[in-house]
Amino acid sequence: MTPGFDLVIRAPRAVVGGAERPATVGVRDGVIAAVAPLDVTVAAAKVIELTAGEVLLPGLVDTHVHVCEPGHADWEGFATATAAAAAGGVTTLVDMPLDSVPSTTTVAALELKRQAAAGQCHVDVGFWGGVVPGNERDRAPLHDAGVLGFKCFLADSGADDFPPVSHEELEDALGALRPLGSPLLVHAESAEAAGPSRATRVYAEHLAARPRAIENVAVGHVIGAVRRSGGRAHIVHLSSSDALPAIAAARRDGIAVTAETCPHYLVLASEEIADGATQAKASPPVREAANRELLWAGLRDGTIDLVASDHSPATPAMKELDTGDFSAAWGGVCSLQLALPLTWTAARQRGIPLADVATWMSTRPARLAGLDGKGRIAPGCDADFCVLAPDEPFDVDHAVLRHRHALTPYAGRALKGVVRASLLRGEPAGAGRPHGALLSRAPR
User: Fold this and answer.
1) What is the pLDDT of residues 80-100, one digit of tens each?
2) What are the b/e assignments for 74-85, b being 16+ CB within 10 Å?
3) Structure pTM?
4) 11 partner at 20 to 30 Å CA-CA among 131, 162, 314, 434?
5) CA distances from residue 93 to 55, 181, 238, 305, 431 in whole angstroms, order as listed
6) Residue 45 contacts by C-beta under 8 Å, 6 or more apart in sequence?
């Protein structure tokens, strides 16, 4: 190793190159300059010595976060969302284009969002742009303005200014984005396959109105559109394991389709959700325990590429806590700060190594977003790290959650994996002056 580092981290356990091993990591000017064996000694302005009970992970990259500012900062804002991210080991997040006002479907809206975020972010933040009917001429300018990709819905999004696209519009958008090299993230639920929504406190009744077919049909439409257009699609928050064979077959055929799932689908099960427990309502819904295990199998065999939080915050009133009515409650789970310990606790129960979790929550999300300098502990990457004590237990406590609202279906749950620190370009993140950057895709 070359002397003269700003920071050296000596880690008996580090996830490097997709595996856990001892490492000494040298940082210069906020960038990883060298990765060497643990016994290498080098001078540095600052040295961090980790214990055998701590693991150095690449900082997590969460590509599915609804920040909601401007317009709905009372739901969540950049200051609180990024503080929660840093507390959970997330050093980069990508903000979804809806739930703010206006939605990010034009360059002007993107600039408003950047203005709202400026000076508030404790972690790095990128932005997805929106694909909606009528904004065809805005997509290339949005790409050139730096969005990392695009997002669309095939069913009602819940936002008046973010309507769904038709099957024809989906295919047209995929074809138009192809020369830009830009992925299209798709909320794959079919409005036609959904059942009638009726007021109910009974989770089983709510789930019956949102059968797996609503996803299976939509995923089939996405695969067909990608096949015909030659574009690139990413299916967000997959909850139906029935769709996995179709995704796997499409990929064997060379079709550019990837998929993610979320901690709530990997941890919760419909059989365990109490009547009226609207904190657990998500869109698409949490399904049965047997379905959950098949999602884990899809992660392990590579059909599902990554895990993202789909942090979708809401006020207590929006979650209908007083009525417990699933049909009226906001469909989103707050989990940004807890995503890593939730996923790791469930993974270790299934004999899955921490290195795999880092791949699903760091390396592959960075790849989806085109962030080549994120998600890995390797020379030339940003010095973004999560220091995790993977064996340390804790119980989820509302008091320590840094989201705008401490609404969670995980209150009191016993987890393993305490985030000791998050470092952003070699500096502590989440406390003190925010120093997160606003990220842009490299220009064409």
Assistant:
1) 999 999 999 999 999 999 999
2) ebbbbbbbbbbb
3) 0.97
4) 434
5) 21, 20, 19, 17, 17
6) 5, 6, 7
